[in-house]
Design goal:
Belongs to the SRR1 family. InterPro entries: SRR1-like, SRR1L. One of its GO terms (cellular component) is nucleus. It is built from eleven helices and nine strands. By secondary structure, it is of the alpha/beta class. The chain has a single domain, classed as Vaccinia Virus protein VP39 (Rossmann fold, 3-Layer(aba) Sandwich). Helices cover 37% and strands 14% of the residues.
Length: 273
């Protein structure tokens, strides 16, 4: 069961599966990704700004910002990294997930906001740059190394668990205390999939779960398939200090079987039109 903290936020201890959880497109559906489909950039920009206004006016954003404030305290978030937005020129869900990112940029005022998705077209990249976002050009599959000192918010909207696992692997140390993950609920994941599978498929998520805190955000937004099953995950220093040194020493690079859920950079490059 979950419980409420002093500020009314739902601190997750466990919960049942979300019946309307959104997922990214399947492997078979992603062949269109490599096509440079032409979009109306002015219309795309206009729709994103409209979506941002919707999010700015929402209770959902108020709850998100309050949760961030409770987590970081007096510290500042200096950068926001976002992976896996998808086709912002064609997908309404992607546009609203981007809208939340733009709201976080506006309200938290980080030094930089970086985005990456191998599916971005050149026109979509142009739109993102116009919105003040920096594009990570290399497909590092989520393996972004954060600062040792400053706080980084990592936003993975409805992304495959392997992407989050890769991020954890690339920062597998005490510096995780400088990281906040906004992504699919780990609590839901661990309840819906056997431990024996998780320990093999996404070992870094599996191992870190006992040393993190998760805060769920009420899915109060108008459209229920955009932010459902999304939680904040952070790594309190007092919990990480209980971790034995050997815990961090086991740091093999993750390897994945070919699945519909997660496409590696090599698999993406080999996709046929």
């Amino acid at each position: 069961m979950s419980k409420l903290d002093n500020d009314g936020f739902q601190v997750v201890s466990s919960k049942r599966a979300s019946k309307n959880k959104s997922t990214k497109l399947s492997h078979q559906s992603q062949e269109f990704w490599k096509r440079e489909i032409e979009i109306n950039t002015e219309s795309c920009h206009r729709r994103i700004i409209s979506a941002r206004e919707d999010v700015l006016a929402s209770q959902y954003l108020i709850d998100v910002l309050k949760a961030v404030s409770n987590i970081v305290g007096c510290r500042n978030i200096v950068e926001i990294i976002c992976f896996g937005l998808g086709r912002i020129g064609e997908c309404n869900i992607s546009r609203y997930q981007l809208a939340l990112l733009l709201c976080l940029k506006q309200k938290l005022n980080p030094n930089k906001v970086l985005v990456h998705d191998p599916v971005f077209t050149s026109q979509e990249c142009d739109v993102l740059k116009q919105l003040g976002l920096e594009i990570i050009k290399e497909n590092n599959e989520g393996s972004y190394v954060i600062s040792d000192q400053e706080v980084t918010l990592v936003y993975l909207p409805h992304c495959p668990k392997q992407l989050t696992n890769n991020f954890l692997w690339s920062n597998w140390s005490l510096k995780l205390e400088n990281c906040i993950l906004l992504c699919n609920s780990f609590s839901t994941l661990t309840e819906n999939q056997p431990s024996r599978e998780l320990s093999v498929e996404v070992p870094y998520i599996y191992k870190i779960c006992q040393y993190l805190s998760e805060v769920s955000i009420d899915n109060s937004f108008t459209f229920k398939d955009i932010f459902n099953d999304t939680s904040f995950h952070f790594f309190p220093k007092e919990k990480l200090n209980t971790v034995p040194a050997s815990f961090w020493a086991d740091r093999q690079k993750p390897e994945y079987k070919e699945t519909e859920e997660f496409i590696t950079s090599l698999m993406f490059n080999n996709l046929k039109i």
